[in-house]
Amino acid sequence: MEHVELSAADLLLRPWRDEDAPAVRDALRDPAIAQWNPQAGGPIDDEVALLWVRRRADWSTGGHASMAVTAAADGELLGSVSLHRIHDGDASIGYWTVPAARGRHVAVRAVVRLTDWAFADLGLHRVELCHAVANPASCRVADRAGYPAEGTLRESYRYGDGRRYDEHLHARLATDR
Ligand SMILES: CC(C)(COP(=O)(O)OP(=O)(O)OC[C@H]1O[C@@H](n2cnc3c(N)ncnc32)[C@H](O)[C@@H]1OP(=O)(O)O)[C@@H](O)C(=O)NCCC(=O)NCCS
């Protein structure tokens, strides 16, 4: 898959770059991101962060499209949004925002923009979004981004504290209004 950049008002979604690694290191150390977007492996250091951005910058398998969410004005890193498990018209979407960017609907706007691109340009039919029931902010992002809830998955995912949590499954279809 070819890299793209997507604009959304004051946001620019763009592929990850090596120079994002220090900001990613700090973000992945945020307790809320460590809990709800857990990374495999040990502590987050510079090397882990660099591998993280390089893995996400490589779209060559066609299985994911991972974007840095930045401020269009000055390039500040605000968050992450990614389509993953892209296969046969389906994908899943994930996201986080850095603490300083929260409360401005950055995640909602990034999810809407990437989803619109997924339907219009990738030709996907269904995008799923899962979050822990214990993470109500993420539920709000899903609702606001037009992903209706479809049900509760019981103890379906092990989060950062090592415990399994129930999750809400939300999804959008290309044919949704
Ligand atoms: C969840 C997250 C992505 C939301 O980021 P954001 O775009 O900055 O979202 P906002 O802070 O603007 O909040 C979005 C909505 O959630 C609401 N919200 C925020 N914190 C909340 C909480 N603790 N409980 C309930 N609602 C909450 C906001 O009021 C807002 O609702 P509104 O649209 O009615 O105003 C961000 O908090 C985050 O990165 N958290 C840690 C990692 C994470 O949870 N990732 C998602 C994994 S599925």
Flag low-confidence runs: none
CATH superfamily (homologous) name of the domain at 6-125: Gcn5-related N-acetyltransferase (GNAT)
The kinds of small molecule bound in this structure are: coenzyme A
Q: How much of the polypeptide forms β-strand, as a percent range? A: 25-35%
If you consult CATH, what is the topology of the domain at 6-125? Aminopeptidase
In the CATH hierarchy, the architecture of the domain at 6-125 is: 3-Layer(aba) Sandwich
Question: Biggest β-sheet: count, sense, barrel?
Answer: 8 strands, mixed
Protein structure class: alpha+beta
List SSEs in N-to-C order.
EEHHHEEEHEHEE
- Kindly provide the radius of gyration, computed on alpha-carbon positions and rounded to a whole number of angstroms: 15 Å
Number of helices: 5
GO molecular function: protein N-terminal-serine acetyltransferase activity; protein-N-terminal-alanine acetyltransferase activity
Domain N-acetyltransferase: 11-166
Organism: Micromonospora arida
Pfam families: Acetyltransf_3 (PF13302)
